[in-house]
Amino acid sequence: GDALLPAPQSISILSTNMKHFLTWSPVIVQGATVRYSVEFQGEYEREYANGSWIPISECSLTTATVCNITEDISATVAYKLRVRAELGATRSPWATTKGFFSRAMTSLTPPELRVVADGHHVLVELADMGPSFQFRVLYWKKGQESRVQQRGMKDVSSVVHLDTMEAGAEYCVKAQTHVEAINRSSSFSPTQCVRAQGDTSVWL
Amino acid sequence: SGELYCSLPNPKNVRFESINMKNVLHWSAPEGTGDGVLYKVKYAVYGVGKWIRKPECRNINRTWCDLSSETSDYEEQYYASVKAFLNGTCSDWMETTRFNPLTDTKIDPPMVSVSSTDRSISIILTAPEKWKRSPEEESISLLQVYPGLQYNVSVLNKKTKKRWLFSISNHTLIVPWLEPGTAYCVSAQIHVTTPLLDSGFSKEHCITTLKDK
Amino acid sequence: KTFHFGACRVSMSLAEIRAGFTAIKANIQSRDPIRTLSILSHPHSLHKVKSADRCCIAHQLLTFYVDKVFKHCRTEDSFVNRKISSIANSFLSARRRLGQCREQNNCACGEESTEKFKQILANYEGLNVTSAAMKSLGELDILLDWMEKSR
């Protein structure tokens, strides 16, 4: 009964900022609701567990054509994914990703950064991006581009104090993310400069 | 072991409650037994072949037993168990889950002391100490137990209502360039990355910077 | 995070392994009824391993889990199986990082730690394979606590 249902096509993985999604094209059967099931296989399963596959329960018998695989792609090794269509008792062959996927291939975008001056103090606010992320913040006094200082930050759930500024000086700040698990960093956010004595961030 | 036929309902919710590695066994009385129930307690070091009775918690009517002394080696893991007695009958032994003092303890917030000048406040943080048997015993700071220990310090300007967060590894912080004659409220939290342990924030310590000279 | 295993300085993240284990710790440990026997911590404690031997013992233990433990821990619980897969694949990644340094630094095992690891294998073989594997998996925090002391 399996051969009547075609396997899903155009199977691919979209991965940005350590969030990974498997997508595929729908299998169309007139007047019927086709469901899909997804399984994954890490290097361990391939090399040490007889090539076994592990089902992702959130994407078992789903009608969606996308599956969030982030929780299961949780080691920096090579993974394979597969999906099949199901209609009642009929199942299609598996459609398996070509080649391997490693989370080290994720694309990293610069962090959202907001810089605020509060009196003599420079403060930064960074959008939380999840537990995998740390932030590297570079800052310097305008005109002294060679004397850049840097701070590493991890839990950034609120406004974080960066440093104190000399009166009247202008300070510039930029930030990038770093993911220790894959040892990669994003590009830098645009530079923002603020001036001491209550200025708010000015895009320059 | 020559015990009576045990038909008494069992003590419930037997568990360790641990703060700064003061490890106290707690449980709830068996259902429907009213007053007069007595208990005895035993514990075991995981992987070591014997259960050990706790004499100070034999035939007690309270529903807790301090096992801090017996579980003070945080490189070991433990089980504890409670049995109830009433009118000549008893319950089964009811066990805890496996207790790992290093990961299963809760940590108190740090002690915070604040002083000020006209334009700055300086903050000194002290991590809590690990529980110890007696005041004479040598103190062990939780800083020694958790080398990756850090502090998150929150500073609130009461005038502007703006709150800043500092994340520091050492125990002192000076915040310069503040406004004279202004109230600032400081509270701090301990953050351990592995194992993942966070204390709550301490209560706020408010101080006003001196008026401009 | 950088870990020092004897001559080896290895950058590794154990936080994900720790989070994965914490998520299934109660489930796994409840499947191990034997209180009076440990695979990793008795009669020898990992905490007594000499610094020079840490690299060799760490690599042996990572290999022990990959080769002997994880494959015998399949459960009826899909969530638990997925977390075990996550931990097992993270172990592969960690062992690869430690292995690269180990080859360059020839992390030899001293006599004492060879004896310790033999005892661990003896503890393991003393039980039927499923019980031994489940007990070893339930003791993962003993291994992680020891490894994290190397930071």
Looking at this protein, list some descriptive labels:
heterotrimer; A: 204 residues; mainly beta; five-stranded antiparallel β-sheet; 17 strands; 3% helix; disordered C terminus; B: 213 residues; Immunoglobulin-like; 2 helices; 45% strand; IL-10/19/20/24/26 (chain C); cytokine activity (chain C); disulfide bond (chain C)
Describe the structure.
Chain C: Keywords: Cytokine, Disulfide bond, Secreted, Signal. Chain C: Belongs to the IL-10 family. The complex is a heterotrimer of chains A (204), B (213) and C (151). Chain A contains one helix and 17 strands. In chain A, strands 11, 12, 14, 15, 16 and 17 form a six-stranded antiparallel beta sheet that branches. In chain A, strands 3, 4, 6, 7 and 8 form a five-stranded antiparallel beta sheet that branches. The longest helix of chain A is centred in the N-terminal third of the chain and has 6 residues. Chain B has 213 residues and is mainly β. Chain B has two domains: 90 residues, Immunoglobulin-like; 98 residues, Immunoglobulins (Immunoglobulin-like, Sandwich). The longest helix of chain B is centred in the middle third of the chain and has 4 residues. Chain B is elongated, with a radius of gyration of 23 Å. In chain C, strands 1-2 form a two-stranded antiparallel ribbon. The radius of gyration of chain C is 15 Å and the shape is globular.
SSE inventory with pairings:
The complex is a heterotrimer of chains A (204), B (213) and C (151).
Chain A: E1 12-16, E2 19-23, E3 35-41, H1 43-48, E4 54-55, E5 66-68, E6 80-87, E7 90-91, E8 95-96, E9 113-118, E10 121-126, E11 133-141, E12 149-153, E13 160-164, E14 170-179, E15 184-185, E16 192-195, E17 202-203
Antiparallel strand pairs in A: 1-2, 2-5, 3-4, 3-6, 6-7, 6-8, 9-10, 10-13, 11-12, 11-14, 14-15, 14-16, 16-17
Chain B: E1 12-19, E2 22-28, E3 38-45, E4 52-60, E5 64-66, E6 78-86, E7 89-90, E8 94-95, H1 101-104, E9 111-116, E10 121-126, H2 142-145, E11 149-157, E12 162-168, E13 172-175, E14 183-192, E15 197-198, E16 205-208
Chain C: E1 2-5, E2 8-11, H1 15-30, H2 54-69, H3 78-105, H4 111-125, H5 129-138, H6 140-148
Antiparallel strand pairs in C: 1-2
